[in-house]
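Board notes (copied after class):
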Amino acid sequence: MHPVSWWAEFEQNCERFDAASVTEALADVIVPAIPSLLLRREADHSADMVLRHLNRPASEERAERATLATVRLAATVARIDERSIGEDTGTAAAHALCLILTGDWARAAAAMESVIGTGPLLKAFVSALHLESFGAEIALRLLNADHSPAVAVRSSQALGRYSWWPKWLQEIVSERVLAGTLDNETVAALKQCAFAGLTPTQARMAKRLLNADQQLVEATASRLENLGEHPAAARLRDGCVATVAFAARLIPV
């Protein structure tokens, strides 16, 4: 389980954290956990009113309705708590929703993680980052590998711009991000590969060269030497990833 401060890192590290998206996504996973049908209906109504306001924040009427619905829900939950005899009042999810509707998403997530599970909550928070599909994938993979939200948010925002890259390049990026070995030199080399227009065969060879397949590196370096490209051959043998795109394009298709 994660503390409130951990969940708060999502908003703290994203310049445009989308309140409407995270509110809707969290409500979608938390409202069904409310056991009482009547309370669940009121919770649904309150969430709808708040979302209407968040999607049109300039509307004073919607703001008033959102506030009223949130206050009513909180009052209903408080009455149920007062009248309940046992320790389990069945209002934990409703309490969490009240937090969500007032913008306290981190506290709500921390409170409900043991009930809902970490996965659905992570997806809800990532949805608020408005990333490209590749960026969202990177974020979730980092989070599932126990990286902090701060690292996941910054990395996914930086790498999400490469959603147009071929799948094989995205796989290399994902692998190296998770391993902590993705550096600027490698990103530059991958960009060259992306723009090189490699055939499927050349792409497979490029991936092996990037992964330092020694047998292929030596064979490719020898080919470069036969073509008079001695400096490029030397750089390839030295592990210069910037040479990969050039070398791969010379591989017969």
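Comment from the instructor: The radius of gyration is 25 Å. Residues 60-83 form the longest helix (24 residues).
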